[in-house]
Specification:
Dna Ligase, domain 1; 5-stranded mixed beta sheet; alpha+beta
Length: 421
């Protein structure tokens, strides 16, 4: 299995069999870091970390040169710099990443309308109906990789298989800048030697539970009675692992991309115990979340907060709203209420706000009156000002002053809306 640093990479030779491998998973290579290296050629070939220069912030991404030292996403920047002291820390530029993502997704749609974006830097493509126009899946994958490189200057890795699950595994193994074809008839052979941790959706705890029972590879899963899988993982996950290990994955490429959640979080330069400051930061984050919901045409039914203390203990709280909303004021009120219920024995290192259970805006039954009507007008005006003059030109008076963190980073950057192009 390929690793995050590119070691263990496996790619298909020229002319490899691609029979039945009509599902592609395309994953951009170290996307954020690659965009920064593209825009600043002096960074090419060097270990770079995307994040705030303050050692307390977290790594958003890292180049493969840094990953080879053990640097990983979500790792504290301070820890990353201890692992790779020569790394260059680069502030993230999410607007630029979204711009490049939109270019890449347009290339995908030029090849097939059946595109399912998973995130800002990866997507599934169903090319089974594009054979007459472009050629076999392997030919299409090679053409796609070349077009992405020629038109954006970025590299991507592609896995091609008969199912989404196997295609995603194949793209991971081929990274960086590779392509791996798994013909349908070779699916079982391909899967058998892979570790159970390679199965899509099997996280560290599930993997530990399987490995504690001597189940280390997918071949081991095939020899394990279903009842043991269910005891180790629960009935639902046991059923999923049983099927995926056999190459059974009925999911089709779904072009109706649905955001699962929208969130922003802030890591502070110094731990903060002041309640007023923390509440102001919650309001700032809630406003950011609301703006992203409105720009994407979503409303949230659930609001959650995340709080990380000075000792790295992390807790989360959530509540379901009476009515779905994209109003930052309402999101902030819910975040305040959740925060008030949290026992805070230590100063706070990180705080986050997330909107969950999203639905298209306006899809719920309207009430007899709108308690948020005035705030909607205010926030519509703010959205207009941000679009015209840039984000942050107008803000709440309580949010003015020196920044206390490395910038409110999106915890789930969205893929571009394909229907808006």
């Amino acid at each position: 299995m390929g690793r995050g640093d590119g070691s263990g990479r496996i790619v298909s030779p020229e002319g490899a069999d691609d029979t039945g491998a009509g599902i592609l998973h395309v994953d951009m290579d170290a996307f954020y870091a690659s965009v920064e290296q593209l825009d600043d050629p002096s960074l090419r070939g060097k270990p770079i970390i995307i994040g705030a220069p303050d050692g307390r912030s977290v790594v958003s991404s890292a180049s493969y040169e840094a990953r080879r030292f053990g640097v990983r996403s979500a790792m504290p920047v301070g820890q990353a710099l201890r692992l790779c002291p020569t790394a260059i820390v680069v502030l993230p530029h999410f607007d630029r990443y979204l711009e490049m993502s939109a270019q890449v997704m347009r290339i995908f749609r030029d090849i097939t309308p059946l595109v399912e974006p998973l995130s800002i830097d990866e997507a599934f493509l169903d090319v089974r109906g594009a054979r007459r126009l472009w050629g076999s899946p392997g030919v299409i994958a090679r053409m796609l990789r070349q077009r992405v490189l020629d038109e954006t200057g970025l590299t991507c890795s592609v896995g091609a298989a008969a199912t989404k699950h196997v295609a995603k595994m194949a793209s991971t193994i081929s990274k960086p800048d590779g392509m791996l074809l798994v013909p349908e008839a070779d699916t079982a052979t391909f899967l058998a030697a892979r570790p159970v941790r390679a199965l899509w959706g099997v996280g560290p705890k599930a993997a530990e539970s399987l490995e504690a029972r001597g189940i280390h590879t997918i071949a081991d899963v095939l020899e394990t009675p279903r009842a043991i899988l269910d005891r180790a993982l629960g009935n639902a996950m046991g059923d999923r692992v049983w099927n995926l290990a056999r190459g059974i994955d009925a999911r089709e490429v779904d072009t109706r991309r649905v955001e699962k959640s929208v969130g922003h979080e802030e890591t502070f330069h110094q731990d903060i115990a002041d309640d007023a400051i923390l509440r102001a930061e919650l309001r700032r984050l809630a406003d950011r979340v609301g703006a992203r919901l409105r720009s994407g045409g979503w409303e949230a039914s659930t609001i959650a907060i995340k709080v990380r203390f000075a000792d790295f203990t992390t807790i989360s709280r959530s509540q379901t709203l009476p009515e779905p909303t994209a109003v930052g004021q309402r999101i902030g009120d819910a975040a305040y209420e959740l925060f008030s219920s949290v026992d805070r024995p230590l100063p706070v290192r990180l705080i986050g706000v997330r909107a969950e259970r999203l639905r298209p805006a306006g899809s719920s039954m309207p009430g007899l009156w709108d308690d948020d009507e005035e705030w909607r007008r205010v926030e519509d005006a703010l959205d207009g000002a941000a679009q015209k003059f840039g984000r942050g030109v107008i803000t709440r008076a309580t949010l003015l002053g020196t920044s206390r963190g490395g910038g409110a980073l999106p915890s789930s950057p969205p893929a571009p809306r394909l229907d808006s192009e």
